Automatic annotation (TrEMBL), chain A:
It catalyses: a menaquinone + succinate = a menaquinol + fumarate. This is Fumarate reductase iron-sulfur subunit. One of its GO terms (molecular function) is 3 iron, 4 sulfur cluster binding. Binds 1 [3Fe-4S] cluster. Keywords: 2Fe-2S, 3Fe-4S, 4Fe-4S, Iron, Iron-sulfur, Metal-binding, Oxidoreductase, Tricarboxylic acid cycle. It holds the Pfam family Fer4_8. GO terms for biological process: respiratory electron transport chain; tricarboxylic acid cycle. PANTHER family: SUCCINATE DEHYDROGENASE [UBIQUINONE] IRON-SULFUR SUBUNIT, MITOCHONDRIAL, SUCCINATE DEHYDROGENASE IRON-SULFUR PROTEIN.
């Protein structure tokens, strides 16, 4: 499974290695949404056909295209191991991380479409402006807020209290959920699932004292009440966070803490 | 990793779109920037205090539960029991509205159904209208229609005269 050898070795000695390795390679077409504001204000589709191991990831294919076929292809990636959240993109119509999606799992017989995530301004090719997404994230105060003197040691918490918000600590801010939300697509004013998930992480933290403030922020016109429970976010989350459930818990907290 | 020849067949989304060869824009004149959503500008509305959205959300759930009973009961009486729809006439309506119980039933059903539907449409307009002006006027139209229907219905229920000729 782990064929993640250095690509340099392969290209350096193509004769023997390529012969023995070529048997398991398949031909895959990648249909990529290209946009370059310095050439045209219209986005267009471009097909790249390449031979690749089906057990490789979509990110490897994008690398191969960028490094060997078309150096102008632009996309984000940092860690390439599903933890930095840079390479969320719309692959075959679903938001996924390119670095966690194996080619064999998404039907390589047909062309694989790769688009930027929706609802955010495309800057170039697969790169979008994440600023509105992070603005919504900052708005919910995603940091510990406490009063009184700082303790001289750790703020202790029981395993049960920690368990309460465990699911929402897993967020990597890749924007796959927010950019799969049809309410966010319309005008982009909705806070979006990711901001609510990160508010949830602190609202239900027993050590935090600004839960009420965050609830007040999410009680606003563009807060949790715009959620239509379409579950797109839960389906899109590459970390398997139960996003819609977290949003529902914030709604319930708003209702039960008010009455 | 060996690569084959690339076939770069370009399929433009809209036929007739600008081709690759015609460079409308360049480094000094890039394509116009599309305003990103959720950008903080002077026109961005301030955060509103109050529980209006929560109350409408709760109202939708609660009125929905009540409406299930009211509407299904209404349909059962009107269309199924005692000969079904053929029995409905002026006399049937007059007989029913002689009782305060059915007056309250119908009044409650009218108000809850209208407000439930209007609020549902309000959220649909909020979700789908793209321009602020469109959104505003669609909502005004909706509110006008709702108020008119509710008031007219209420008037009829309370001023119904069985002896009208």
């Amino acid at each position: 499974m782990s064929t993640a050898t250095l690509e340099k070795n392969d290209s350096g000695s193509p004769s023997g290695a390529a012969d023995s390795g070529a048997a398991h390679l398949i031909t895959v077409t990648f249909r990529i949404r290209r946009f370059n504001p310095e050439v045209s204000d219209e986005a267009r589709w471009q097909d790249f056909t390449l031979e690749i191991d089906p057990k490789e990831r979509v990110l490897d294919a994008l690398h191969q295209i960028k490094w060997e076929l078309d150096g102008t292809l632009t996309f984000r990636r940092s860690c390439a191991h599903g933890i930095c959240g840079s390479d969320a993109m719309r692959i075959n119509g679903r938001n996924r991380l390119a670095c966690k999606t194996l080619i064999k799992d998404i039907g390589p017989e047909k062309p694989i479409t790769v688009e930027p995530i929706k609802g955010l301004t495309v800057l170039k090719d697969l790169v979008v402006d994440m600023e509105p997404f992070f603005q919504a994230y900052r708005d919910v105060m995603p940091f510990l807020v406490t009063t009184g003197n700082e303790p001289t040691r750790e703020r202790l918490q029981s395993p049960e209290d920690r368990e309460r918000f465990d699911d929402t600590t897993k967020c990597i801010l890749c924007a796959a959920c927010t950019s799969s939300c049809p309410v966010f697509w319309n005008d982009g004013q909705y806070f979006g699932p990711a901001a609510i998930v990160n508010a949830h992480r602190f609202i239900f933290d027993s050590r935090d004292e600004a839960g009420e403030q965050r609830l007040e922020i999410l009680n606003d016109k563009d807060g949790v009440w715009r959620c239509r429970t379409t579950f797109n976010c839960t389906d899109a989350c590459p970390r398997g966070i139960e996003v819609t459930k977290a949003i529902q818990e914030v709604k319930r907290a708003l209702i039960t803490r008010r009455f | 990793m060996s690569t084959t020849e690339t076939t770069e067949s370009k399929t433009t989304d809209e036929p007739g779109g600008p081709a690759d060869s015609v460079a409308l824009y360049d480094v000094d004149h890039p394509a116009p920037v599309i305003e990103p959503p959720r950008k903080r500008t002077a026109k961005t509305p301030k955060a509103s205090r109050g529980n209006f959205e929560m109350q409408t959300w709760l109202f939708m759930r609660l009125s929905g539960i009540v409406l299930v009973v009211l509407v299904l009961g209404h349909l059962l009486i009107q269309l199924v029991l005692d000969g079904g729809v053929s029995k409905i006439g002026f006399a049937f309506v007059a007989g029913r509205w002689a009782s305060p119980f059915w007056q309250v039933w119908d009044l409650l059903m009218l108000w809850l159904a209208m407000l439930h539907g209007a609020n549902g449409l309000r959220t649909v307009i909020n979700d789908y209208a793209e321009r602020d002006n469109t959104r505003f006027w669609l909502k005004m139209l909706l509110y006008a229609a709702t108020v008119f229907t509710v008031l007219l219905g209420t008037l009829v229920i309370f001023t119904f005269d069985p002896n009208i000729r």
